[in-house]
Amino acid sequence: MHAGPGKGKNLARAATAVLLVLGLGLGAASSASADDIDDRRAAAEQQAKAKKAERATLQEDLDETNAKLAKAVLDLNTVEGRLPVAQAELARAQADLEAARREAEILAQRLQDAQDQESAVTAQIASGSHQVDAARADIAQMAREAARGQGRVSALGIVTGAQSTEDFLQTYAVSSSAARSQARALTQLQDAEAVARNQEARLQAIRETITQLKQAADANVATAQRAEQEASDRKAEVEQLIAQQQQLTAEIESQKAAALAEISANETSQKALEGELKAIIAEQKDRDDRIAEQRRQEEEAAREQDKNNGSGGGGTSGGGGGGGVAPPSTSTFLGWPTAVPYVTSGYGWRFHPVLHYWRLHAGTDFRAYCGTPIYASQSGYVVKAYYDSGAGNNVIIDHGSDRGQSIMTRYMHLSQFSVRAGQWVSKGQQVGLAGATGTVTACHLHFEVYVNGTTVDPMTRLP
């Protein structure tokens, strides 16, 4: 039983509606999946930002930590900042690849359906062509018979030529039947030609669809290849980051004991130094007198020079002793140890992020790139200029007394000395060049101030 035209259209509409519903369902699922991936990516980027912000604090907390350990910790911070982003990018690439593969399956099925339709319509056109040819042949035959007069029977001829009423009726019926046959033949020809035209138009539309589907399939192949390459690259990166994370974690663990021992040795050395400085202070009466006299003579010479130069007075910024721009003059007892003072880390207690203990950062760190001149904060005698495993190349200067208190300063992590032990230095005179010697992660100046042999916050004594 064949479905009528109306029923066929209804079935087509129903099929289209089903496809639309399925398409909407797939779109919703894809959208939900995409939203989840986007949320993961946003969360990963927030983690990366947090790790980046943490890095600055981490660098400060790792100051005076073994350089190898500090590097491993900072490298781990970088890896752990990138890892969640790379994992989110991998998820996105895998989702894109899966979507491209699903699209390839859909396109392949649609292309197969279109090609099947093309074959069916082509067969229908071939069959319809035979029907058109047959209808045309019938019409041609009728035309030939009409031309010979075989089919031309008038009403008058029927009446005059009839032998009886029965003969008349029979002859008239034959004539009417021929006319109906001609009409049917014409109708069949018209229908066959209309069907042929419709099928040709449908075939053309199907072939255009096939062309479009092939183009879409080719484009999807390129998209799938890119997605596959991206997924492969991100997978390799994630695996590499995880391996680095494991390696760095193991490296940090393996260095903890040595780092703790080194820090313990540095603290012991610091305590011994403070004891040594206090012993010097106890015997310092004569040296204080000599320092005061030396400073008085320098100030008097400076005033005399200003008077001779007609400058109208003013203090001295100290000797050069090695070039560079002298630090700004100050009215305080201690002056800046660098020409452009910029504090990068202050005095105070810190919690070590790896070794998990509190320790005192006993000085102020100033930005000083490698080779930057470092200046004496005040005039005095160089007590020591030596290398220490923690402080690196460092200089200690005894400035005598200020308001009844013994004042000494220390300049650490120098790359080069400009003075020697026992030497008198003027305020602002170069004592060395900034470096990264000792337990340190980068070039800078670690500056300490000792009041009566104990460290204090340098910023309480500086301008």
Question: Nutshell version of this structure?
Answer:
It is built from 5 helices and 12 strands. It has 463 residues and is α+β, with helices and mostly antiparallel strands. The chain folds into 2 domains: 5-256, no CATH class; 285-460, Glucose Permease (Domain IIA).
Protein model, in words:
- The protein has 463 residues and is of the alpha+beta class.
- It folds into two domains: 252 residues, no CATH class; 176 residues, Distorted Sandwich (Glucose Permease (Domain IIA)), CATH 2.70.70.
- The chain is built from five helices and twelve strands.
- The strands form two sheets. Strands 1, 4, 5, 6, 7, 8, 9, 10, 11 and 12 form a ten-stranded antiparallel beta sheet that branches. A two-stranded antiparallel ribbon has the order 2-3.
- The longest helix is centred in the middle third of the chain and has 118 residues.
